[in-house]
Amino acid sequence: MTQRLVVIGNGMAGARTVEEILARNGDFTITMFGDEPYGNYNRIMLSNLLAGVEDEAGIFLNDLSWYADNNITLHAGVRIEKIDRSNKIVIADDGTKTPYDKLIIATGSSSWTPPIKNIHNPKRGFHQGVFAFRTLDDTRGMIRYARDHERAVVIGGGLLGLEAARGLQNHVSEVTLLHAMGHLMERQLDERAGHMLQASVENKLGIEVVTNAMTTEILGKDRVTGVKLADGREIPCDVVVIAAGIRPNTQMVADSGLPVERGIVVDDQMRVQGQEDIYSVGECAQHRGNLYGLVAPLWDQAKVLADHITGRDVSAAYTGSKLSTKLKVAGIDVASMGLIAPENDDDEVIIYNEPKKGVYKQLIIRDGVLAGAILVGDNRKAANLIQAFDRAQALPEERAEMLFDIGAPAGEVAPADMPDDAQVCNCNGVSKGAICGVVNAGCKTVSGVMDKTRAGKGCGTCKPLVQRIVEWAAGGEAEEDPAASWYVPGVPMPKPELMAAIRKYELKSVSSVFEKLVPGGEHDAKSKMGLASLLKMMWADQYVDERDARFINDRVHGNIQKDGTFSVVPQMKGGVTTPAELKRIAEVAEKYQVPMVKLTGGQRIDLLGIPKEQLPAIWADLDIPSGYAYAKSFRTVKTCVGSDFCRFGVGDSTALGIAIEERYQGLEGPGKMKLAVTGCPRNCAEAYVKDLGVVAIDGGKWEIYVGGAAGAHIRKGDLLTTVDSAEEVIQLTGRFLQYYRENANWLERTYSFVPRIGIERIREIVVEDSDGIAAALDAAVEEAVQAYKDPWKERAVPATPGQFRTSLPLTVLPQVPVRA
Amino acid sequence: MILGPVSDIPFGEGRTYAVGGDMIAVFRLRDGSLRAVSAVCPHKGGPLADGQIDNKVVVCPLHLYAWDLATGCSQSGQPSINVYPVRADGDQIILGD
Q: Which pathway, metabolic or otherwise, does it act in (chain A) (predicted)?
């Protein structure tokens, strides 16, 4: 049944909430009451209106036709005087009574007037020439009056006061800002940042700022001629603007017997405490003791309220907001979030101060997460900091990276500056416009946009840019993807919890994981491969191998190519082969008319274009084990010729590379593992840029580097340790790889994993055994080594019916065997 | 039309069948039911029978685009694929109503 919904308040909170209700097809006849005789406008833009950079039409969010189009009865300029709860009616100042089934109170705030002598005129409210700065009418009056006057004083050095001062400069020649506190914006900025901002406001904008200025009196008989401060100073002026703060409009609500403290007390569903049918939202609402005066929390409240009142999601709950602001204050970049000063002795404080440029940055870090930040004069890192703050993300080891773009290409492109047709994802050909289209259609998570457009799903290098574009296009409303921390998209758990649950319930097959750990037991195709890899790592030979959980490459032990054929790369340990082996490979290539024979980057030979049904026969003729060039696994160990032949070689890199490959061949993991051993620091085998690279140095020692990469991402590995013998290299290699297997996220290569954990921590665990798990890691990798079987031996008896049956006509249809 | 024994298709996998001039991928879901769709990915011609499935979608092995097995609709903005009625009669896969 259609219910009657009455909304008291037609400001940004009231109208936004109604929009959210309409978006959920809420079944209501809606009546709205607004104090001001207009539709709904963007109050934040009033300072732009004052500054003359926006006109009145430009600040309206919902004009009167919006109300008509949505069958909303709007009483603009009508004030509600009482809520009669027992009869469920609201009574307006014109005496009309309106019944409701559901009521939303969104009365917002009013400008607060400090107790200043002579500020009021008994006949006309304020003294002639004195203005508040809160409504469209205030702003219009101020503009009209200021036009014929010369000197303005703004009382209040918060955000609104600064904006008013800046705007007034458009109309009068002299503006003085009086602030009762010791520095500007003291709620958002620490003292140093406040002084930095003050210097910029004075020097760049030419606004005089007086702090510790307690205004006691408005001077002038008929109209303002100046203000007097507590220290006796008089400042001549002919316009005074009050911007000393806001107070929630709650009097009528309190008078109607509803619970009001500093604001109207609401629960997590935004219902007024103890009331089934009355809600409150926005600046007038007090939630868990907090009042919010920014729009972002208000948007969140509106969504929860709408979810609850429409029954779309009655369990929706607003749990409070972490406050952050990023804005231009009077033309100067300012951002602030969380703490503005350290509170504990062990709070980590990082400060960068460059007064000449007017740049100040401060971070406060507690327990490894961002607890507060202040930026003045440079907001380039503000979006990253707000995200790190909101989501309590892990922070980079190099704290300076949070303040500056270190190592990023100079002048990183801003999404706003990119043309719509600029290609963002060079692998899948996705433009900025395509990404924005998906965001505008309602998809506001980075992973959701990546799924829909496939941007960032190739080499992955554009992911940070995709993220920036999504955040920009969503206008700061990008949503956190809960799945981002899950090991695979279809099972709602991060890796440690997932592994603990798998152990607890002894889940040894992929289907059992879905059935036990996913609500509803739903299977997910895109999660199977990651789970199969994880279970195999955890259970080794006890793993119940469901072949459908494998990706096609792992079902048939070759890498699928664009035409549905496969590549065959025989093992060639350390890149060393023999004439006999080469002959065999050549004969196979000729016999099967292999379309292409190519050397790989990992020092092996690739036979390309092999139909699936020929794989078993080719493997049999080759009679060489699989090189695993298709799996998320240990791939190759690239070597140089080392000390046997090279006149510079100081260690036998070839022999060591072969030994490492012999031992760890086929080891599966969360990502590929490419290794190298090089016989001297000239690094011909490129060991510095491998997942694990070993470098022989003079004196019979070996350096081990981990976390290197030279693909889409380039990174020099970190030196893990230097050891004296090849045996130690082999042991530490296994221990590091096992630690990576157990702790890396799915598809997280070592170049992300190592910096995420930190090389010092990895060294503690793997080399120094500070956690006492080295023996367990060694035992686990030993078990995996023992479980190795050459998959190409499956050629004799297929593992499943039709394992090697073709799935496609490779050339033309009639060649495919037709099954009767 | 009989395509062959159900046991030709392992649980959770697909196999391709040539039917007249068409290539059809038949999947045997883990819940035992069958689905049949056109075998060729409309994006770049990938072999859908080699794709991974769950009880709802097939994911093409080449570029990981996904299609709903029941409706043929793309989940990633690609053209739809054909779906065909298919069922098991005893041990045999029957294509068609």
A: Nitrogen metabolism; nitrate reduction (assimilation)
